Amino acid sequence: MRLASIRHQEQVVPAVMDGDLAVLIDDIARDLVDLAEQGEAGIESVRAALADPKRARIADFGYAAPITRFRRDVLCCGWNYWDHFEESRGKREGQDVDRPNAPTFFTKSPGSVVGPFDPIAFDSTVSSKWDYEAEIALVIGKGGRSIPRARARDHVFGITLANDISQRDLQRRHGGQWLKGKSIDGTMPLGPVIVTPDSCNFDDLWIECLLNGQRMQWASTRQMAFPIDEIIAELSFGMTLNPGDVILTGTPAGIGNAREPPVFLKEGDRVVVSVQGIGELNNRLERVDLRGESEVSVG
Question: With a threshold of 0.90, does the pTM exceed it?
């Protein structure tokens, strides 16, 4: 099952996809977070709606980010492909560390989230080192704390795609803490749909990132250092996960900052992140005044 938040008649409403057509389910849930909270009962209602031939199939719509209502920051797992960890060794500007023995977690602002085909905000005066990061993202369905690894996948509502656009100089500027260099407004595409666990194989999803048509990243989730169930078990240890929480699971090798010479994003660039069966994020960087009247100088 493929679930989406769509823009239809000047509103954002939840829908289930029937091929390229959208079936509205706003009578079942006000948004996909609400649907996640309903658990299996909500999913059964959506299945019934999808099977109902009397339900209207809508072709005139646009995609919004599937999650539009956040209770907390977007949760993220860094360094989750060892080839990515190794490619950046010696390029972290004095902030290198040894390989971690457990997942590395950080958060980013929900204000960074944009839709799967929306522009990515870009301002070269805020950062001179804009980078792409293609990622699989989990959406939590059943909440819980200290979730055993053996039951971790029971808590997954579905998966979607993210492009964790990063500002490398901001990451280094703030003591190696990643929040600031990951949280610039309007910079993280999410979507296009949430695919439920019965419709995909988490363990072998191939993710690709193209920059202006050139392949920059290409990897399978089999290469993850810490698999999905371990991420959930570790992140929930002593900390409650809630329905609708979004968890980014890390990016593979091929980032711009690790290349020789480095490849950083610029205004007008187009970045496409895709996984077969989920779809693609297709976004262009567009100039936005993110600096305003700030006197902060990043150099």
Answer: yes
